[in-house]
Design the sequence.
């Protein structure tokens, strides 16, 4: 294999197992790419070269001892929302610019135990609040397909880094679309699992009833490998669900004949870029040739998802972020006059504009006398949105539609208008409100920019989502495209050190 | 609905956020726009709907009341802004 940087996780795993390369070689290769190419993207907040090489040596020793698993020696990156013992976890915020967690998140410790090598921590919207990765304290991330455009958010650093093949795969988190929307805008396969499938322990909380971690990968087969290591019950997360984890890779090749796919008519109406809709229609036709039966369905409460989300998410955010008070960890203002001044200035200076905006929306909707009109109302609508899906899954196995209403938009285009930004997630938010698993996979290009197809499944059907995505990827090669300018041959430039 | 400057100042106080003077009109405008968007919720009659507590109807797990954490005070305090003799320091609260 000559172009290791283009190789999928699955191929790298096989190459390591066959002794065609070592983890140290792979780690050097990808560290070299980050060093040479990330100036163009700003996709990493921290790179841990020395520690990564130590881990790679350990992985190679483990393999020599005959104790390697499929991820042993594979280089990965974590979204900078996952706590990593000894390595700064900033969450994209000035508030945590100096925060070094004294423990690992469960996702991190599980991947560490599997022998994966952490190359670094990826850039993200501040506290995962954003759909463009422009709210980061560490600056905007650029889309490798067009550096004048956003990569999506909030897991924009992970998406840009994997799309540019600076790392073979990365972790992300999804509260309202933060894995799927950047996956769509960067041409990747990204999965948000069922609520409770992946532990939230050590994953910095934004909206606890919606947050879920998942993989951002080049293909569904890769996502299956990564999810296998991430998923499972964790007693340290009070909302973790004790439900068996199937063998995701074993299910990938199952035939799709007879699979019933529903197309919600509300996902194809006004607001959808017609060119994006066309690519989605073409992908649906591929499913028909694979034997799937496609029918139109209705999710009548679709338009309520965005308003409901912008009560629930800010309310939970204002509560979760009250812990940042300048006392025990994180940013503290200079020379506070008294305790109130310490709180207010530490928070006012430590948080960026979008985070402050959402804290204030949450504070408003939870303030005395408003609970019934806002939070309670939203939780009732959430039930109605969830009921729509329950009825749909009585007649179909999967729901398909666009992930995002448009391709990647220019940097700055929606920054001054929060409502426009929020509407980027119009098709992704409902799965979070209902707690359902959903996946985005690349299904074509419009003007050289990737388009994402979203598949939503019933609870705990990650295996079926990955299976459906994998079968599509056997028929198409959208997922193998690498952005021009990032496909340098590893031999031409030598192996980075 | 339209939030005024004093509404924003009151919310910011409740949220313990110091805002810069020049940012307040922008917050008044965007918070108003968000609350107007959220008001679409009112179009739906939800009198007979039970609010969702958990998408999978899961309930809080219980565990035996036993000590499971070890003392890591020194590690935790190593990342604190100001500590002394094992205590977190803040400005004087009681005169």
Sequence:
């Amino acid at each position: 294999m000559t172009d290791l940087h283009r190789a999928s996780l699955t191929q790298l795993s096989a190459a390591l197992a066959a002794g065609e390369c070592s983890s140290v070689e792979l780690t050097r290769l990808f560290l070299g790419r980050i060093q040479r190419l990330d100036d163009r993207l700003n996709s990493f907040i921290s790179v841990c070269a020395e520690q990564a090489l130590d881990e790679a040596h350990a992985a190679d020793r483990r393999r020599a001892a005959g104790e390697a698993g499929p991820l042993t020696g594979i280089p990965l990156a974590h979204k900078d929302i996952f706590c990593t013992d000894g390595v700064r976890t900033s969450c994209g915020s000035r508030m945590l610019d100096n925060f070094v967690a004294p423990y690992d998140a469960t996702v991190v410790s599980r991947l560490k135990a599997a022998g994966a090598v952490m190359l670094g921590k990826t850039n993200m919207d501040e506290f995962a609040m954003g759909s463009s990765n422009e709210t980061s304290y560490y600056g905007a991330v650029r889309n490798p397909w067009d550096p004048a455009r956003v990569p999506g958010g909030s897991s924009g650093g992970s998406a840009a880094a994997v799309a540019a093949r600076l790392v073979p795969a990365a972790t992300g988190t999804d509260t309202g679309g933060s894995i799927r929307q950047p996956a769509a805008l960067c041409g990747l396969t990204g999965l948000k699992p069922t609520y409770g499938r992946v532990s939230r322990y050590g994953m910095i909380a934004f909206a606890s009833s919606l947050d879920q971690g998942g993989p951002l990968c080049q293909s569904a087969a890769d996502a299956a490998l990564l999810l296998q290591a991430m998923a499972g019950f964790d007693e340290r997360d009070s909302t973790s669900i004790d439900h068996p984890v199937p063998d995701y890779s074993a299910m990938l090749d199952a035939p799709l004949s007879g699979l019933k796919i529903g197309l919600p008519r509300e996902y194809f109406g006004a607001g959808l870029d017609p060119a994006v809709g066309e690519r989605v229609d073409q992908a649906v036709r591929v499913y028909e040739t694979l034997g799937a039966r496609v029918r139109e369905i209705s999710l009548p409460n679709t338009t309520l998802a965005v308003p409901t989300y912008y009560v629930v998410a800010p309310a939970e955010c204002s509560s979760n972020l009250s812990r940042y008070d300048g006392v025990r960890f994180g940013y503290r203002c200079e020379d506070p006059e008294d305790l109130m001044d310490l709180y207010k200035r530490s928070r006012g200076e430590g948080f960026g504009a979008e985070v402050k905006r959402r804290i204030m929306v949450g504070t408003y909707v939870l303030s005395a006398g408003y609970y019934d009109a806002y939070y309670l109302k939203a939780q009732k609508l959430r039930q109605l949105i969830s009921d729509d899906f329950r009825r749909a899954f009585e007649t179909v196995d999967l729901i398909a539609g666009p992930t995002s209403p448009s391709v990647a938009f220019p940097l700055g285009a929606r920054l001054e208008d929060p409502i426009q930004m929020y509407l980027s997630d119009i098709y992704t938010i409902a799965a979070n409100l209902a707690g359902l698993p959903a996946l985005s996979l690349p299904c074509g290009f419009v003007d050289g920019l990737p388009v994402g197809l979203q598949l939503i499944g019933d609870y705990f059907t990650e295996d079926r989502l990955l299976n459906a995505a994998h079968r599509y990827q056997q028929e198409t090669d959208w997922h193998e495209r690498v952005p021009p300018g990032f496909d340098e041959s590893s031999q031409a430039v030598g192996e980075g050190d | 609905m339209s939030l005024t400057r004093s509404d924003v100042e009151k919310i910011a106080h409740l949220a313990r956020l110091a805002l810069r003077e020049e940012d307040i009109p922008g917050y008044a405008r965007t918070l108003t726009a968000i609350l107007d968007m959220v008001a679409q919720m009112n179009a739906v009659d939800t009198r007979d709907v039970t609010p969702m507590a958990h998408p999978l109807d899961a309930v809080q797990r219980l565990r035996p009341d036993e000590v499971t954490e070890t003392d890591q005070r020194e590690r935790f305090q190593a990342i604190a802004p100001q500590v002394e003799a094992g205590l977190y320091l803040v400005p004087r609260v009681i005169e």
